[in-house]
Write a structure and sequence with these properties.
The chain is an alpha/beta fold and 605 residues long. It has 20 helices and 27 strands. The strands form six sheets. A nine-stranded mixed β-sheet has the order 2-1-11-10-12-13-14-15-16. A hairpin with a 6-residue loop joins strand 25 and strand 26. The longest helix is centred in the middle third of the chain and has 21 residues.
């Protein structure tokens, strides 16, 4: 078990693998980097500045940014070594949620990034007497910049406090995005996160000096832990956003990274773009593209090819898949996807193309890792979320509605949270004591699958809280059904409905690009999505899709009726209404059920 504190990693990097380009981002379209030594220097100056603001160990400081920057790393490092708890917030939540988090956490200061973030937080300040000031990482006429906090001076007080910080001290409150109700502040210690960092380091094929691209929100523990992992590995980190990754002028081409973390939705969008470009081809080029794509349909990990089949794969890689890899920069050693389930089709097609993607599973309350699909032979299996991390114990707890061999996943290990801040009742719901030991009740339903070479894999079958029970008493797991539909090019989003109802139905948001392409192919003039979904031919096309997918599921799980919806579900709504998705793009089922109550009632009329 590690005794490292998170700030130790930066000092370790400076002594072992100092980087001239430790952390960088674009400033006026030009990449600018800070070295390891400069990050340390600014971090110590920020530490002195935070002390001068009157902060002490145990106090809380919040932050919210659209894009991570080296300045955010400086602030985080300074707080970690002073024992000040960092409260990172999502940039897409509402002012009401900012007010709730800042009030419950008792944050004394808040640092915000560019855009509308200062104004959104400022709206809450009058209701938060404990929030003393809002600083900005950019320029805002009404606020002081982050660098006005920096102070030069003697570091004796910083060193004294740093020596008192212990691995089991809480270092951050990470507020969950939450599909229902108010967010909960997950109390994580240095040890919780460091366990994840050092577990993953043994399993990922990157080395000191490699280049990494970071574009996920650092308010999510997945990317937050990844940042510490990158520091520990001694790599160069370039921060960007998801809006400028691809294309000839994109950041993937500019940085040519060896590694990055992502979420399934972004991989799906990349695949859709690749597929769309294939459709634009003609003649032999088009035929070769879809020939190569069809080859991937029976690909699997650790499969060996010989003879004519091996030659076909060699041709496909040279003519088609090499272009896919070049579009991602041409140097990718590995990609980790997490935060939500990745469709098997996406995992298969990218790995088959020589783009090594592995899926991790966990949750904020586990800081975040529980299992991970590894890069070594026989240590990854399609349809699973990998091998349980060394040091994590699992229990599969069956319930009356569970299928044989399935049950709720309980986890025990060094990464498990201390609890929810100020919410002992909610903590008691998540932490179960069995024979005197603390187990995290994940709320996920899963099973263990045997693999080769002694590996066993964890397979997620559904969310316990999302199990539907029809009026006929049948339990339905919506996630596996939704995953199959989302693999189709015509489906952007879907939610399965059926709680206390006599059959299963679906709310479907069509994928605009895929539907446009189908309309063009069938001579149907495109106007707009609200109008197109009323077209009988389009209704019939989706009915055919439902009839094709239904046989993959039991009679009770089959979709009997569906409704096409005219607008995409989003994590933030411009009109101020409650969003249909969490910031990590999970469905807020309660919100969707309420919003489309009339459409649902019509399906069951």
């Amino acid at each position: 078990m590690t005794d490292n504190r998170l700030f130790d990693y930066l000092y370790e990097q400076q002594s072992r693998n100092p980087q001239e380009k430790a952390f960088g981002h674009k400033v006026k379209e030009q990449w600018q980097y800070l070295s390891t030594a400069r990050i340390l220097e600014l971090g110590n100056q920020m530490s002195l500045g935070l002390l001068r603001l009157g902060l002490k160990p145990g106090d809380k400081v919040a932050s919210v940014v659209y894009k991570t920057s080296p300045e955010w790393v400086v602030l985080d490092f300074a707080m970690l070594q002073l024992g000040i708890l960092h409260v990172p917030m999502y940039p897409t939540i509402s002012s009401r949620e900012y007010e709730y988090i800042l009030n419950e956490s008792e944050a004394r200061y808040c640092f915000v990034g560019d855009g509308d973030l200062y104004d959104k937080v400022q709206q809450t300040k009058a209701k938060l007497p404990g929030l003393q000031e809002i600083f900005t990482f950019g320029d805002h006429p009404a606020a002081r910049r982050w660098d006005t906090v920096l102070v030069d001076g003697d570091l004796d007080e910083v060193e004294r406090i740093k020596a008192t910080v212990r691995p089991d001290d809480v270092c951050t409150l990470v507020y969950t995005s939450g599909t229902t109700g108010n967010p909960k502040g997950v109390m994580l210690t240095h040890r919780n996160i460091a366990f994840n960092v050092e577990s993953i380091q043994k399993l990922v094929p990157i080395v000191a000096g490699d280049r990494v691209l970071s574009f996920l929100p650092v308010s999510h523990i997945f990317e937050r832990t990844a940042i510490y992992f990158f520091v520990r590995c001694g790599v160069s980190v370039s921060f960007t956003g998801t809006d400028n990754l691809g294309g000839d002028e994109g950041d993937l081409k500019a940085i040519r990274p060896h590694f990055f973390t992502t979420v399934p939705r972004l991989l799906e969008k990349v695949y859709d773009k690749i597929y769309g470009k294939g459709l634009e081809l003609s003649g032999l080029k088009r035929a070769l593209f879809f020939w190569a794509l069809n080859l991937t349909e029976d690909w699997d990990f650790d499969q060996k090819y010989s003879g004519w089949k091996a030659l076909k794969w060699k041709i496909a890689h040279k003519l088609i898949f090499s272009k896919w890899r070049e579009a991602l920069g041409g140097n990718i050693k590995g990609i980790i996807t997490g935060a939500s389930a990745c469709p098997v089709k996406i995992m298969r097609v990218f790995n088959a193309a020589g783009i090594p993607i592995r899926e991790g599973y966990g949750m904020t309350e586990a800081a975040p890792g529980i299992s991970f699909s590894r890069y070594e032979p026989y240590a990854a299996m399609l349809g699973t979320v990998g091998v349980v991390l060394d040091g994590i114990d699992l229990r599969i707890e069956p319930s009356p509605e569970s299928k044989p061999g399935e049950g709720e996943i309980l986890a025990k290990g060094p990464g498990i949270m201390e609890g929810y801040y100020k919410q002992p009742e909610k903590t008691a719901e998540m932490i179960r004591y069995i024979d005197g030991e603390r187990w995290l009740a994940t709320g996920d339903i899963g099973t263990i699958v045997e693999g080769k070479a002694g590996f066993t894999f964890l397979k997620i079958t559904d969310r316990k809280k999302e199990l539907l029970k029809t009026s006929l008493g049948k339990y339905i797991a919506p996630s596996p059904i939704e995953s199959v539909y989302k693999e189709h090019r015509l489906v952007e989003q879907i939610m399965i409905v059926g709680e206390n109802l006599k059959f299963v139905s679906a709310l479907i948001v069509p994928a605009v690009d895929g539907l446009k392409e189908w309309c063009h192919k069938h001579g149907i003039a495109w106007s707009n999505l609200p109008e197109m979904i009323r077209n009988p031919q389009i209704q019939l096309r989706y009915q055919m899709l439902v009839e094709r997918i239904n046989p993959h599921f039991s009679h009770a799980e089959q979709v009997k009726k569906f409704t096409l919806l005219p607008s995409t579900w989003e994590p933030v709504k411009a009109d101020g209404t409650e969003a249909e998705l969490t910031p990590t793009l999970k469905l807020k089922r309660r919100v969707i059920m309420q919003k489309y109550q009339r459409e649902i009632e019509e399906m069951y009329a």
